[in-house]
Amino acid sequence: MSQFVINMIFVGASFAVYTWIAIWARAKSTREFYIAGGEVHPVMNGMATAADWLSAASFISVAGLISVGYVNSAFIMGWTGGYVLLATLLAPYLRRFGTYTVPDFVGKRYDSKTARVIAVVCLIMISLTYVIGQMTGAGVAFARFLEVDVTTGLLISAVVVFAYAVLGGMKGVTYTQAAQYVVLILAFLVPAVYLSLMLTGVFLPQLGFISSHAESGMPMLVKLNEVVRDLGFQDYTADVSNKWNMFLFTITLMVGTAGLPHVIIRFFTVPNIKDARRSAGWALVFIALFYTTAPVVASMGRLNLLEQIYPNGTDQASMVYDERPEWFRTWEETGLIEFEDKNNDGQIQFYNDGTLKTPNQDFAPIAEARGWEGNELSVNNDILVLALPEIGNMPGWVIGLIAAGGIAASLSTASGLLLAISSAVSHDLLKNTLMPDLSDKQEMLYARLAMVGAITIATYLGLNPPGFAAQTVALAFGMAASSIFPALMMGIFIRRINSKGAIAGMVAGAGSTIFYIFLYLGWFFIPETNTFPNSPEYYLFGTISPLSFGVIGAIINFTVAILVSNATEKPSEEIQEMVRRVRYP
What we know:
Keywords: Cell membrane, Ion transport, Membrane, Sodium, Sodium transport, Symport, Transmembrane, Transmembrane helix, Transport. It is found in: Membrane. By secondary structure, the protein is mainly alpha-helical. 68% of the residues lie in helices and 1% in strands. The mean pLDDT is 84.
């Protein structure tokens, strides 16, 4: 049986399950469309939350990020820490408040349509940024594993999301995401187990990570450090040069992810506060299962790749290009692996020639003595997970499984983001702001139309991604950290915060964050319009990068909101009593 047929079986079977769930769990009311009727079991909601959280960025990119050095563990610490922050400080109280969406909470807590609209704008900006990446990731996964072009792959993913998100709403999405979690976690764990057995002889990947390399007998990470150092790269376990910026970046990721609306609304789907806490606990277990495996895949995957390029050791001849294996040829066709024979010797020299950060200066004379004239291989780190089964010569069914897992990771988060956008438009912008006389039936219709519109826009942006897509990720985290998170925290824990303070805080926090990001990444991300170069010597205090400014924006939001609220009238007694009931029922 060909690999294409195997891939089709795995992907087709998973799609059949998703479609059946969408039909079975079709939403029949606005309550089912927005919060799945508020009757989801905590374990099921925990799995759905984990799938919502573990996006294409997590499934495809996290291992690639960590593979270049454990310095990028800030992503794992920030994202996981943000979930803990959300689960302990926000989720139970938001569930008790009983609203459908984040802007709904902001609008009712501060008794302000303006605050609600600002929250809607922030939500749409954050969600659209993320959904571009999810749809694009799904298109790439389809293109590679189903042997179609990226455009066709993206259109297929849009149709699938349309089927279960528009029909099922939150109810259909919840049960579909639970199924997608099972697919993506198996797709991540199974290759990790194979890799751990292959390199260390240990079945459990998390233990293989800290055990010995089977062939050399050296500790696994010591062996990896030796190999990368011998090729001029920075040690995998190298220290961080700017610890303060890493700290700020981690905190920005924490407060930014704790303010992500598509994850927050998951806690509105359970019956009561107790179940909200239980589902948060289960979700943390399911997320931890993934994130404790990611460093294993990162380190062992990188070592496995380098051992493929240098099969007899880094001091011996490297792979001959004309004898490259099939996986190499396949990924070359995607453009994610590129080779240029700079010294015309027909071999692949893969090393740090000084163009990458933190080179091993001692290696430069060695490379020159060996006749190397520069690095000849470019490998996109995002292929580390998707290509892992092929590089490791694993069975065809593992390749099919990881194809289904990569697609599931993209679609699960995309559906959650699109639902958040749809709910914000239909429930908050139309029903509670512009068209208050909408009936439930009309609101349901507009919700589905909004979902269709969101899918259409997301598909278009996926097909025509803006050139600044990478930069907008910084803007998304900054917006979530500096606008939504402080508004929720103060709305729950500080009764004195009024609508004027909340609005001023969100505008000041988000505005300062956007301003700072534009200074270094270009105004409205237009190339070459940045005021300062994006390098540490130009950062505020020589430390705070644009990626790390979100937490500063959050501090500005808190400060401005408290000052303005104390300088103006108190919230009504009704609002203060509502806050008291949320905190102390």
